[in-house]
Design brief:
Blueprint lengths: L1 H23 L4 H41 L1
Keywords: Membrane, Transmembrane, Transmembrane helix
Length: 70
C-alpha cells in the first residue's frame, strides 16, 4: 500500500513539473496568447454567432412573408 502511494505521488509530481515547465516557457504560442484566444472565442460565440442567427431569421421571415403575399 505504501509503495502505491509513493508511486502515485511521484506521478503527480512529474505531471506538476511538466505543467510548471510549460507555463514557464515563454516561446510557446498558446502560453503567450492564451487569454487573447479565450477572449476571441467567447466573443465570437456570445456576440457574432447570435447576430448571424438573428440576421438569418429576419431574412427567413421576410422570405416567408413574400411567399404568402403572392
Amino acid at each position: 500500500m505504501d509503495e502505491k502511494i509513493k508511486k502515485t505521488l511521484k506521478e503527480i509530481h512529474e505531471v506538476h513539473q511538466k505543467r510548471k515547465k510549460q507555463k514557464e516557457n515563454p516561446n510557446k504560442f498558446w502560453n503567450k496568447y492564451e487569454g487573447t484566444i479565450q477572449f476571441l472565442i467567447i466573443f465570437f460565440f456570445t456576440f457574432i454567432v447570435p447576430c448571424i442567427v438573428v440576421y438569418g431569421a429576419l431574412h427567413l421571415i421576410e422570405w416567408i412573408k413574400s411567399i404568402i403575399h403572392f
